[in-house]
Amino acid sequence: MFGAGNKILGLDIGSSNIKWTVYSEAKNMPTIYNWGLEETPPGAVRNGRILEKQSLLDKLREVIVNNRIKVAKASITLACPEMVIRTVDVPKLKQKEIQNVVKYESEQFIPGNSDEYIIDYKILGEIKENQNDLLKVLVVAVPSGIIQNYIELLENLSINPRAIDFFSNSTCRFLNNFLRDVKDKNYVLIDVGASNTIITIAEQGVPVLTRLVQIGSEEIARTIANSFNLTLEDGEKYMKTHGRVFFDNEQPEDKFLWEMMTSIMPTVELLLKNIFQSVEFYKSKTQKSIETVLMTGGGSYLKHIDKYFAQQLSMNILPLKGIFPVKMKNNIPEDIINLFCNVLGLAFREEE
Ligand SMILES: Nc1ncnc2c1ncn2[C@@H]1O[C@H](COP(=O)(O)OP(=O)(O)OP(=O)(O)O)[C@@H](O)[C@H]1O
Ligand SMILES: [Mg+2]
Fold it and tell me: What confidence tens digit (pLDDT) does each residue in 221-239 have?
């Protein structure tokens, strides 16, 4: 049904793993022809920034050749600490005027010179306040230098860019389709990656607030390695096989478990503190509540982390189990789907 011309390469290049798909876009049920997970060359990407272009290019060329990927275009989803998402209320104006007002409003929350940012916006709807007609607008701002590096990366691969998207946008698009039958898509999404944790609050499926904390599961692997006198590599293996989160009422007497608890919990508590702050900020600004938590990223596989966050935040955890809203030739196994939500989100066409 689709020629090679319709196929798009989707990329989520994390500091630890490259998640890729070959897909054709659709609004509700895109087709995934192929997918894969590859290790990112060490040190090539950190906090959304490409630090070593050559090794990353070599790796991507290898992925393309080995998997016989033939695409006309590619889309990339990224996240960086400088990325800002906010909703602002602006007067109901003409399209061109809105752009200027959005730019002016963005200057209030962009850390630094707004001319160095690419600012994108989407009108969410109309509201009335004190007899005035206002527009609720979602604004996303990302440093243009970061985006430029990804565009250059694709140019070097001789692939045309289809879209550069942002973590919260793409992941929420996937999750909203997964949650198709859930009426109120209000949730806090926590993506625990290797080097970053991204906290996103979605209101009716729209990511209205996002925050990136520069701590991830790599930090937990490091503290385990220190406590148990292991190499970093073995610390990571230990975390995956023996690691778990401990609940408040646990006081393990076993020395091994005690060491595990004292090496893992400070990082988990630090993440929880950041999530709590974001949720409280959202609540105080909007007077609205959030009752559901969703988790993605490799760090979400740390045993009990999801239950612990849900318990501490007094929320329900929604596991990513069930039917996924994509057609796949060879299915992504359910037990690794948390790694793929972000890159899969690229395949859902934005509503016009
Ligand atoms: N069972 C597990 N328990 C804890 N951590 C795990 C587990 N399985 C995988 N991880 C960790 O998940 C991380 C990889 O996840 P992911 O692919 O989401 O990261 P990334 O996207 O490359 O990183 P980032 O988004 O921070 O740049 C690795 O650090 C790995 O150790
Ligand atoms: Mg990631």
Answer: 999 999 999 999 999 999 9
